[in-house]
Amino acid sequence: MNTFFLFVLVTLVSLMVVYLYRVIRGPSVFDRVLGLNGISTKAIVLLVVIGTVFERVEMFVDISTGYALLNLVGALAIAKFLEERGAPQK
Amino acid sequence: MRIMGAILLFAFWLLLSDSFDPARVGAGAFFAGLVMWLQPARKTSTHKFSWLAALGYLPWLTGRILKSGLHVSRLILDPKLPISPRLIHHHTELDGDGELVVLGNSITLTPGTITVEVAPGELVVHAIDEASSVDLREGVLDAKIGRMFSRGAGT
Amino acid sequence: MTVLAIGLIVFGLFFLIVGSIGMLRLPNVFVRAHALSLTDSLGAVLVLAGLAVYQGLSMNFLKIMVVLILVYLLNPVISHATIRAAHRSGLRTSEGKTE
Lengths: 90, 155, 99
Description:
The complex is a heterotrimer of chains A (about 90), B (about 160) and C (about 100). Chain A is mainly alpha-helical and about 90 residues long. Chain A contains 3 helices and no strands. Chain A has helices at about 1-25, 30-55, 55-85. Chain A starts with a helix and ends in a 5-residue tail after the last helix. Chain C has one domain (about 1-90).
């Protein structure tokens, strides 16, 4: 079973690389924000999977709850800022 | 209303703290009460929320998400990428804040449709293709949510 | 129970992978957001549900359910806010087809 969870971990991390590509390349700033959101969603899942592997779910779940809430605040702040100021011109 | 909120917060605290020694439980009860006491009074909604209808709504929404998720996956994996994005102006009967939040969230949660703008009575929705927008145009979602928030005499 | 958990996780991983492919292939922000909603509302939720089922009925099950509900409630808010900002800052929705 541990092998399976390690497989899940590796898959999640390699999918994060795809989103990282979008963050670095992304033509507009909104692509980058979307990429960051995708990464953080996967980080939430990743933390719970790590917890399952180490059999300390109760601790890692708390961390990922905090991560989810902080991610919400950060993403809303970026979206609000871009809405007020407009997207940067290239 | 506040007592209900305090009980919910306290249950959440118990769930996260995962221990039942008196000091922690006491601190949880204290902070749950403090937070609800500090909260400013909100204007009460005139719509009565029915938990029973909400319980029926969630599984239905999950099934719908699964169906349209498979549809969008097929679109993405198709080598020809047969997407035809469009903006839809969706008129709705719903006007309460709670109803609009549930409607907007449900639309965004469903793959293939995203709420772009929200105003009472009208939503702007971005859909990925024709098939994703059909469900919305038929107004099934509105009817279900309308049933969840019955227009009662207020709480 | 374990079989159900593995089934849910694999199904969720499928959606996560499709979402990533969509992120690479799709042409503009508005359409890419659909791929993101696929990863969020199906992929992450299914994987978390699988992990919760694997824990069995215990305190950990409830805790993972809390994270699941948070993801379920908060991710639509994030993608709506981002897309609204993109729309208001005058980015064109491709094709410009409206009805």
